[in-house]
């Protein structure tokens, strides 16, 4: 995998990326949940969905404008994500995603391989018709994005929708919350992974969908296990390239 060291042009593009907010779920100022909680959840979901690529900063001003709120709840949400270990503050430059190193990724993968295949097995046993429809629609969106050669952030978002459609179908909120906590650290890196370097990724998704439809828990778990293991090589290469780029920057 090739991720070039920053050039003057790429530095300028990165600066523009810092000023532009990612696609965010809109909030409801009149809703029951506190505004800061809604803002936190919206930004966190963007990180989980790979809509913020690794190395791209987050501007309080641009996020506030996108969400239609003042800077205060956005700043509070970003500080909370910093406390979560997901972001770090740059003096006079807002916030940025915290680098994920090889050792931390290995630890994340170890836990993911224990939780996510189990969630797929539960989905095969518990999925309702609306769950199956959501998984199929997410798979179709992912396949279409691949066929169109979409940019990494878009493909990462479709990949996240597919996986989480399965994990929600497991009907286990505790398990879903644990998996979400892992993905919030991983999402920005997934946006930088080249999908065609992930062996059999599309095939594993199709196999998982078919197995869940047919109630074959063991096959569903195996498909997700192989999907995560296959992607691990490309993700590890991406992390190494990002670390090398940071060292040269």
Secondary structure tally, helices = 10
Structural class label? mainly alpha
Quick one: CATH superfamily of the largest domain?
GntR ligand-binding domain-like
Strand content: under 5%
Structural domain tally: 2
Q: What's the order of the H and E elements?
A: HHEHHEEHHHHHH
Rg result: 18 Å
Strand tally is: 3
Query: Looking at CATH, which topology of the largest domain would you report?
Result: Four Helix Bundle (Hemerythrin (Met), subunit A)
Mean pLDDT: 86
Question: Order of strands in the sheet with the most strands?
Answer: 1-3-2
Oligomer: single chain
CATH architecture of the largest domain: Up-down Bundle
Give the distance, in angstroms, between the N- and C-terminal Cα atoms: 19 Å
Shape: globular
> In which range does the helix fraction lie?
55-70%
Main β-sheet, in a few words?
A: 3 strands, antiparallel
What's the CATH class label of the largest domain?
Answer: Mainly Alpha
Uncertain regions: pLDDT < 50 for 5+ in a row? 1-19
Quickly describe the structure.
The protein is mainly α and 249 residues long. The protein has helices at 8-19, 35-48, 60-67, 71-83, 102-126, 129-147, 152-169, 173-190, 201-213, 217-248; strands spanning 57-58, 87-90, 94-97. It is built from 10 helices and 3 strands; from the N terminus they run ααβααββαααααα.
Structure description:
The protein is mainly alpha-helical. The protein has two domains: 8-97, Winged helix-like DNA-binding domain superfamily/Winged helix DNA-binding domain (Arc Repressor Mutant, subunit A, Orthogonal Bundle); 102-248, GntR ligand-binding domain-like (Four Helix Bundle (Hemerythrin (Met), subunit A)), CATH 1.20.120.530. 69% of the residues lie in helices and 4% in strands. It contains ten helices and three strands, in the order ααβααββαααααα. Strands 1-3-2 form a three-stranded antiparallel sheet. The chain starts with 7 loop residues before the first helix and ends with a helix. Residues 1-19 have low confidence and may be disordered.
